[in-house]
Amino acid sequence: MKAVILERKGEIRIGDMPMQGTMTSDTVRISVKNVGICGSDVHYYTHGRIGPYVVDSPMILGHEAAGEVVEIGDNVTSLKVGDRVCMEPGIPNAKSRAAKLGLYNLDPDVVFWATPPVHGCLIEEVVHPAEYTYKLPDSMSLAEGAMVEPLAIGLQAAKKARIVPGDRAVVIGAGTIGVMCAVSALAGGCSQVFVIDNKAEKLAIVGSYEGVVPIDFSKQNPLDEVMRATDGWGVEVVMEASGAPPVYPDFVDYACPGGKAVLVGIPIDAVPFDIAKIQSKELDIASVFRYANMYPRAISLVGSGMIDVKRLISKVYPLNRAVEAFEHAAKMEPDVVKIQIEM
């Protein structure tokens, strides 16, 4: 089958690969239709590794996917041939302690698409557990279905923030995950979300959502702006979604006393924390690693129209232009949020 293969750092090709996985009574075979290019895909392309995960042999990229069911296993009753679906890319060991506790995203044995040595889903067909394959409502397109994966991260952050209706939030970073955190905070009940970045184009995109206040830190002092808007009190929720080391010493300054701070972005190296500053406000600090049980919520929110992800799809490339798609994504142009490949 045709697949998008990372041969080595800086080299991608479209080639033939065998279908990954074998049909069992509990799996489904899916014709892949839309796949989003994630920042991690680009990082593997440009750097050949992310931390301990190293591309040392050819690997199929991609983990944000939607498609159509073409075969079902004998035990599968939740899906049928012809269903349009999206697929959760991380498969845990169902018998692990983490999975039994409902923390399956933290299972150390999780098998996650496009994480070396595991192949991804940028291939014409995949076999996937039915338990982690979700039917899309008629109101959702396949392109929207491929946006469920990054949205699930934002929803995980909103859950960790324990948002109360009427809360206000600050999101640092207007990349894809920052935008997903902002729209998830609004869907969770926040009345206002301040998004801080220095890319005017990205701020314009996230600022198109009602309830979002974009702040360009190259032109304004963001802390002054937030404090002015909150009468010096601060916001109930701060979400750090940039992973930028300079942010960490002071990002809790935006929080009000008793507020919550959620760490979503992942810095490459260790960063400093001012513990006394956190304690003086008695802040709750939470963190996010992927997501658990968020796909049904994300699908409901997009399918109902409460969260619009269509405006975040910047460009869709056909499979035969996949190399060009990755070259485009690697440029990290400020007006690009999500690039997809249509298989």
Please give the number of β-strands: 20
Cα-to-Cα separation, first versus last residue: 11 Å
Helix percentage range: 10-25%
**Mean of the pLDDT scores?**
97
Name the beta content range: 25-35%
Shape: globular
| Rg measurement, Å | 20 Å
Catalogue the unreliable spans: none
Described by strand count, sense and barrel closure, the largest sheet is:
7 strands, mixed
Helix-and-strand structural type: alpha/beta
The secondary-structure element order is: EEEHEEEEEEHEEEHHEHEHEHEEHEHEHE
Number of helices: 10
Q: What would your notes on this structure say?
A:
The structure is a single chain. The protein has helices at residues 39-47, 97-100, 142-145, 148-161, 176-188, 200-206, 222-229, 275-280, 295-303, 322-330, and strands at 2-8, 11-16, 27-36, 49-50, 53-54, 59-60, 64-72, 84-87, 90-91, 111-112, 125-129, 133-135, 168-172, 192-197, 212-216, 235-240, 255-263, 284-287, 313-318, 338-342. Strand 1 and strand 2 (11-16) form a beta hairpin. By secondary structure, the protein is an alpha/beta fold. It is 24% helix and 29% strand. The chain is globular, with a radius of gyration of 20 Å. 44% of the residues are buried. The strands form five sheets. Strands 3, 7, 8, 11, 12, 19 and 20 form a seven-stranded mixed β-sheet that branches. A six-stranded parallel β-sheet has the order 15-14-13-16-17-18, sandwiched between helices. Helix 4 packs across helix 9 (295-303).
